[in-house]
Design goal:
The chain is of the alpha/beta class. Helices cover about 50% and strands about 15% of the residues. The chain has a single domain (about 5-155), classed as Rossmann fold (3-Layer(aba) Sandwich).
Length: about 160
């Protein structure tokens, strides 16, 4: 079952082309594809989103549990040159702990990668998500929101690092 079969909206073709071009430019400039950590316990949703992101050229680290998400955070902090994360996508229903707690920990330790919180309106207080600078989106619109945030991130980060050797 694909994400699109679940009723998700896709970017129009021109936006999709811009996203693919941004991924290629990023990989050339930084010497690696952009990395997304996908913290989602629901197997179907995680696999569908992971497949969609890989098809767009992203390196996807899947985290089915809070422990795996924390491992990705710790690697990113310990060796950012090897394990830097460009975007976190975390589900409000992540097994093991609150994703708000995990992202709060990340923010306290200097991990500033943009974060999308997949949730429904009544799952988490918007004030807490705003305090942690998390962008909230409904699970049913996940891929569209992820694509838009990734395009913004890649365009902004273009000038932040020198060209890879």
């Amino acid at each position: 079952m694909s994400v699109f079969a679940l009723g998700h909206d896709a970017l129009d073709l021109s936006q999709h082309v811009h996203l693919i071009e941004a991924v290629v430019a990023y990989a050339i400039r930084w010497g690696r594809p952009p990395r997304v950590v996908l913290g989602v316990s629901n197997d179907d949703l995680r696999v569908d989103l992971g497949d969609e992101l890989r098809a767009r050229g992203f390196d996807v680290v899947e985290a089915a549990h809070a422990q795996t998400l924390h491992g990705a955070l710790l690697r990113s902090m310990a060796t950012p040159e090897l394990h830097a994360v460009d975007l976190f996508v975390v589900d409000a229903a992540l097994d093991g702990c609150s994703p708000l707690h995990a992202m709060g920990y990340a923010r306290q330790h200097g991990v500033t990668a943009p974060t999308i919180l997949l949730s429904e309106e009544n799952e988490h207080a918007p004030d807490e998500a705003a305090r942690l600078d998390l962008e909230r989106c409904a699970r049913s619109r996940a891929i569209e929101s992820i694509d838009r945030v990734l395009l913004r991130v890649l365009r902004r980060r273009w000038s932040e690092r020198p060209v890879a050797a």
